[in-house]
Design brief:
Elements (H helix, E strand, L loop, with lengths): L31 H11 L6 E2 H10 L8 H14 L2 E5 L6 E4 L1 H10 L1
Antiparallel strand pairs: 1-3, 2-3
Main location: nucleus
Organism: Paramormyrops kingsleyae
Protein name: Histone H1
């Protein structure tokens, strides 16, 4: 009955606190949502601008659509839920989109 209790693990090395990575500066220029609204407003299509045509317009404006495809889709969904854009065809981020004229009028009145 004289078993020695194992020594506590106090000799374990203390973990150093993790250093946070330096915050990257925010890139200058308009956001993806602003670029999308500009492209849709410039379109003269009656039924709105399709996703493929929107991506072409963004790429023509110098935006890297292949690299930031998920950002484009998230921005589209966000603009539809806010009411800035109306989705005329499709679901989610696919289909055709046009400006919500009621939302635009509200913005003009509030200014």
């Amino acid at each position: 009955m004289s078993e020695a209790a194992p020594a506590p693990a106090a000799a374990a090395p203390a973990k150093a606190p993790k250093k946070k990575a330096a915050a990257k500066p925010k890139k200058a220029g308009p956001s993806v949502g602003e670029l999308i609204v500009k492209a849709v407003s410039a379109s003269k299509e009656k039924n709105g601008l399709s996703l493929a045509a929107l991506k072409k317009a963004l790429a023509a404006g110098g935006y890297d659509v292949e690299k930031n495809n998920s950002r484009v889709k998230l921005a589209l969904k966000g603009l539809v839920t806010k009411g800035t854009l109306l989705q005329t065809k499709g679901t989610g981020a696919s289909g055709s989109f046009k400006l919500n004229k009621k939302q635009v009028e509200r913005c003009k009145i509030s200014l």
